[in-house]
Amino acid sequence: MLLFISVVLAAMPLLGIVVLAFSSSLTTVDGLFTSLILVGISALFGSRALFELRRRKLWAAATVGRVAQNSLAAASGLIQRGKIESVEFFEAHVGQPNKSIVTLSNAANPAQMMVFEGDMRNALPTGQKVEITLRKMSGYNVLVEVSYS
Which of the listed residues 74, 94, 117 is the one where a domain comes to its end? Predict the structure, then answer.
C-alpha cells in the first residue's frame, strides 16, 4: 500500500509541471521555480517508492534464503550432546553481541566450554541433559535447536 501511495504522490507533481507547460508559464521565473519545486517533491516520493520496492524484493529474497538456511543448518549443523554444567552470561559494550559461556560435560568426553552469542540462560538450563544443534557465525556459536533428554 505504501508503494502505491508513493507512486501516486510522485506522479502528481509531474502532472503539475505538465499543466505549467500547457499554460505557457513554464518559461517565466515563477514557472521555472515552481517546476523545480515540483520536480524535487516528485523525486522525494519517487525515491521512497524505489526504496520500498527494493526493500520488498530484499525481504522476499531473505525470507526464502532464511528458510533454506534454517533447513540446511538443522541438517548440517554441529550437534553436541551432554549435560549442562553451567551457563555464564556476559553483557558486552554497545554495538557488540552479548555472549554466554556454556560448559557441557559428557560421560565419554571431558567437559567442554562453548561460547554462544546472546543470552542462553533460559534456553539451556543448568543440570539438563541436552542435544544442541548449533552453527558458527561471525566467530560465535549460534543456537539452532535444543532437545532435552
Answer: 74
